[in-house]
Every structure is written in C-alpha cells, then in structure tokens.
Design brief:
The protein has about 100 residues and is α+β, with helices and mostly antiparallel strands. It is about 20% helix and about 30% strand.
C-alpha cells in the first residue's frame, strides 16, 4: 500500500509555478451547415500571456477536426494570489 500523505496534486503544482485557470469559449462552424455556429468550452491550467496549452489545443482542432474555427474568447485567472490584508482598529476578546 502506498501512502499519499503530503502528496500534492499536479494542478496545485502548476498553480504554484504560475499557471492559472484558463477558460476558452470556442465558436466554430458546423461542418455540414457552414451558416450555423456551435460553441465549445475548453478549460485547463495554462500560462498567461502565451497560452501554450490552448495554442496546442487549437492547432490540434484545426488539423484533426472538421468544424472551422470562427472565434475564440479567453478568460484567465490566477487562483493563487497574494493575501489581501487590511488594517484592524482593535482586537476584542470574549470570554
């Protein structure tokens, strides 16, 4: 039996290395009906601003899939951020 105590996930490691959660809304034309648009949502951890994982996925799409891309809208957020601090005027203790 292998103990997994203290083991962190690959997703957490990526976040510590600076990756952020990237979401792309991909609009593409239907292969049989070019006038119709379909949407596909892709989400993965990626590096801002070059987005190598998204770039690889879009290259795969254009090479292997039939639906031509129409547009790609990207949102990106770093999930591990510096803590937000604010001054406190006093400390109150209740017994």
């Amino acid at each position: 039996m292998v103990s997994r105590v203290g083991v962190v996930s690959d997703d957490f490691r990526k976040q510590v290395l600076g990756y952020g959660l990237t979401t792309a809304e991909i609009l593409y034309r239907m292969p049989d009906h070019k006038s119709l648009l379909q949407t596909y949502v892709w989400q993965n951890y990626d590096m801002f601003p070059k987005f190598p994982a998204l770039t690889d996925f879009l290259a795969f799409w254009q090479e292997k899939l039939d639906g031509p891309l129409f547009s790609v809208t990207v949102a990106h957020s770093k999930l591990i951020k510096p803590a937000e601090l604010r001054a406190v005027d006093g400390v109150f203790r209740l017994h």
